[in-house]
Amino acid sequence: MDFINGFVTLANFVIVPGLAYGAQLALGALGVTLIYGILRFSNFAHGDTMAFGTTMTILITWAMQAAGIGFGVLPTALLALPFGIALTALLVLGTDRAVYRFYRVQKAAPVILVIVSMGVMFVMNGLTRFIIGVEEVNFADGGRFIVTAREFRDMTGLQEGLAIRTTQVITLITAAIAVAALFWFLGRTRTGKSMRAFSDNEDLALLSGISPERVVAVTWIITAALATTAGTLYGLDKSFKVFTYFQLLLPIFASAIVGGLGSPLGAIAGGFVIAFSEVTVTYAWRRVLTYWLPDDLAPSGLVQLMSTDYKFAVSFGILIIVLLFRPTGLFRGKVI
C-alpha cells in the first residue's frame, strides 16, 4: 500500500504535470522544426509568436465572456483559439512579407536570418506587452478538475490523492489531435508533400513546379497555429505572462535540438525529454521516498536537486550536453 501511495504522489506531482508540459513543449518545438527544416533558419521569435497568439486568444476569450458566450465545463479559450490562430497567422505572414522575404530573395546566409529573427523577437515582445501588459493573467474558466484529490481518496481508499485538472487533459488531447493532423497533412496532402520536397531539395522542388512562396506561406500559417495552440495550452495550464514566454524559448529550442533539429518526431520526443527532466530534477522527492524506503532510511530533507526557480537551467544543461556529444540529436536531424 505504501508503494501505491508513493506512486500516486509521483503521478500527482511529476508524471501528469510532466506529460502536460511535455505536450506544450512538443508543439512549440514542432514550430521551430518546421521553420528550420523548410526555411532553413532558427526562428528566435517563436516564443514571442506564442505570446502574441495567446494574447489574441485571451482578448477574444474576454470578449466572448462579456457577450455571455461560454463552452460549458471547457475553457472558453478553446472557442477563441481559431480566431487567435488566424490573427497570429496574419502577423507572421505580414512579418515574412515585410522582413524575411527580402533576405530570402537576396539568398542571405542562415546566420543573417537568425539575427533578423532576434530583432523581430524584440519587436513582437514589445508589441505584446503594449497590448496586454506585463502582469500575470489567468483566463481559464469552466470546470477546474476532472478528478479532485479528495474524490480520488474516497474512490480508492488510499492515503494520497490524485488531482487531474481539466486543462491537463485538454492539453494532451489537443496536442495529440494537432500532431496527428500535422503528420496527416505532411504525409497525405499535395501541399504537405510539396513542403517535404522543398525541405529535402529546394532546387529540385523548384524544377518540379513547386511554388516557393506558397510553401513559405503555408509553413508560416502552420507555425502560427502550432505556436498559438502551444501558448494557449500553456497559459490555461499555468498562467500567462509575456516574459515567461520569452523564457520558454530556451526549453523549446532545447527540445528541438535534443530530438534532432529538423525532425518532427524528434521535436515531440525532445519535448517530453526536456519536460520530464525539468520536473524530475526540481521535484522534492522526500514525500515519495518516505513511502518507498524503510523508516530508518526515510530522508529528513526535501531531497530536491534544484529549486524550481532554476528549472530552465536544466534545459540549458541538457542542451550543452547534447551539442557536445550528439549534436545531431536523437533522430539525427532528419528533414521534414
Characterization of the model:
By secondary structure, this protein is mainly α. It has a single domain (about 1-325), classed as ABC transporter involved in vitamin B12 uptake, BtuC. It is about 70% helix and about 0% strand. It has a two-stranded antiparallel sheet. The relative contact order is 0.18.
Quick gist of this model?
The chain has helices spanning 2-39, 46-66, 77-105, 110-132, 149-156, 166-188, 190-200, 202-207, 212-237, 242-247, 249-259, 264-282, 286-292, 311-325; strands at residues 145-147, 164-165. The chain is mainly α and 336 residues long.
- The side-by-side strand order for the widest beta sheet comes to 1-2
Query: At CATH's second level, what is the architecture?
Result: Orthogonal Bundle
Q: What is the CATH topology? A: ABC transporter involved in vitamin B12 uptake, BtuC
Low-confidence stretches: none
The major sheet is characterized as:
2 strands, antiparallel
User: What structural class do you assign from the helix and strand content?
Assistant: mainly alpha
